[in-house]
Design brief:
alpha/beta; 19 strands; binds flavin-adenine dinucleotide; single chain; FAD/NAD(P)-binding domain; five-stranded parallel β-sheet; Rossmann fold
């Protein structure tokens, strides 16, 4: 048998979820934590992200509760001047490295085992040396339940003939030449980033073929900003649109009119609603790509053609096909966060996984009894379709009402930058903020009731 280590908690996964949970837990309880990750460091999927990725929303909403990611700066230059800074992958990984060193390991209460696989029952096996460690912990925290699926780790979901160049998006920066055509496969944030990166690097829009199996709705980044007046105005716009909506599609069209949602092609009704944020300048750039293939999912890539579920298209003999077709978000079923075998981290308020994991850490440290913790913090899902999006809003709103009913959580949540709806004590109540709050109060309940009907919920 290998080494035995005792701890109060074993946290499996040191990505955004595991880090936010552990940070809030040790800040509010005197406990010992063993954290493990099969990757070589903390940071989770960001360690294997494509080189040109950035957070899609403000840095302030991401990371751990105790330590701001970035310095809360508003961008002064470039196409996003006026919007809050968004960290790059190296910045995110460096930040998590500092949090690990200074706040976690430095506190003497966290031990981190990088490069170890948790194989079950508290048993860790090194992926380098084969060394085994047994962790005897009071509680296990599953911080990989919603770990995203990324192109660097998931092979393309289509067959590839010999002699065809298919690259994961990570390799796009190493093209090393200029093919006459680049075929981008995927409709989500990764594909969007790949197209923008190509265009920003001078590739002619006519040289890009974009295979979009589904059309995406995206959130307008300008309205998802860490400013209570801006964020709560967006929330008010959303519930007012919901209140009047007759269907999921009608809801999104209303949100588009209100400046909350964006779509690339206004002649097509999107069916996908994972809703990453997008800036207006990106939208303008994306609309310059005219060769868009909407024939469903790619089944096979041959030397001069793509076979898709809905037909075939010709591609250039020297085309490079870029795999941006991993699912990204994972749609595991909702389970109670405090379970018999593990604490399973999931979002609580709509979206914002870092806030959800930090909230779970705070609640674990400060509230007694799993039943009560689950009552206060039910999980909420990620969305894939417009109908899912309505359900996500309803469940996230119910969870928010629930956790805010506890005075201790309410006081904590008001001070945490990760909480997008926080109005920190002392923030001046501008007329814009008061107006947003008034509109929210008037439409929240009828809007949520309508969203529940749209989602087919009781
Ligand atoms: C490209 C991209 C951009 C994104 N941008 C944003 C954004 O801007 N804002 C936002 O809120 N969300 C964003 N997301 C959503 C994403 O879900 C969250 O950002 C978050 O990083 C997910 O963190 P996680 O800890 O759940 O998963 P991960 O980062 O994947 O961490 C889970 C960790 O668990 C480890 N692990 C798994 N199994 C084991 C095992 N058996 N033993 C040991 N270790 C194990 C894995 O190695 C991994 O490091 C983005 C996602 C992607 C793919």
């Amino acid at each position: 048998m290998g080494t035995v280590v005792a701890a109060d908690y074993l946290v499996v996964g040191a990505g955004a979820a595991g880090m936010a949970f552990t940070d809030a837990l040790i800040d509010h309880a005197d406990v010992r934590v063993v954290m493990v990750d099969r990757r070589h460091s903390v940071g989770g999927h960001w360690l294997d992200a494509y080189p040109f990725v950035r957070l899609h929303q403000a840095s302030r909403f991401y990371g751990v509760a105790s330590t701001l990611l970035g310095d809360g700066r508003v961008q002064q230059r470039g196409p996003e001047a006026g919007l809050h800074e968004r960290a790059t992958a190296p910045e995110i990984c460096a930040y998590y490295g500092r949090v690990l060193r200074d706040r976690m390991v430095g506190s003497g209460r966290v031990e981190f085992y990088p490069g170890y696989e948790h194989v079950g029952d508290g048993r860790l096996v090194s992926r380098v040396s084969g060394k085994q460690i047994e962790v005897r912990a009071r509680r296990v925290v599953d911080a990989r339940y919603l770990a995203p699926l990324i192109p660097a780790e998931v092979p393309p979901p289509f067959e590839v003939d010999d002699g065809v160049s298919v690259l994961p998006v990570n390799a796009l920066v190493d093209l090393g030449g200029a093919p006459s055509q680049v075929v981008v496969v995927g409709s989500g944030k990764t594909a969007t980033d790949a197209c923008i990166w190509l265009l920003e690097n001078g590739v002619d829009p006519g040289a890009i073929c974009w295979v979009r199996p589904r059309e995406p709705w995206m959130l307008n980044r300008a309205v998802v900003q860490p400013d209570p007046a801006v964020f709560l105005t967006m929330a008010a716009d959303t519930v007012e649109a919901a209140r009047a909506a007759t269907s999921a599609d009608d809801l999104f069209l209303r949100l588009e009119d209100a400046g909350v949602m964006l779509r690339i092609d206004r002649s097509v009704t999107p069916t996908m609603a994972k809703t990453p944020t997008l800036a207006q300048w990106e939208l303008d750039r994306l609309r310059t790509i005219e060769n868009v293939v909407r024939l469903g999912h790619v089944r096979r890539v041959g030397p001069t053609r793509l076979a898709l579920s809905g037909g075939e298209v010709r591609i250039a003999p020297d085309a490079v096909v870029v795999h941006c077709a991993a699912a990204g978000l994972r749609y595991s079923p909702l389970v109670p966060i405090w379970g018999r075998d593990a604490i399973t981290l999931q979002p609580i308020r709509t979206g914002f996984p870092c806030f959800g994991a930090a909230l779970a850490g705070f609640v674990e440290a400060t509230i007694d009894g799993d039943e009560e913790k689950n009552r206060l913090c039910p999980p909420s899902p990620y969305s894939d379709t417009p109908t899912d999006w309505a359900r996500m809003q309803v469940l996230g709103d119910r969870a928010t009402t629930s956790f805010l009913s506890d005075p201790g959580i309410r006081a904590w949540a008001a001070t945490v930058p990760l909480n997008p709806a926080a109005i920190p004590p002392g923030v001046p109540r501008s007329a814009e903020l008061e107006r947003a709050l008034e509109r929210l109060r008037a439409s929240l309940r009828p809007g949520m009731a309508r969203l529940a009907e749209i989602a087919g919920m009781a």
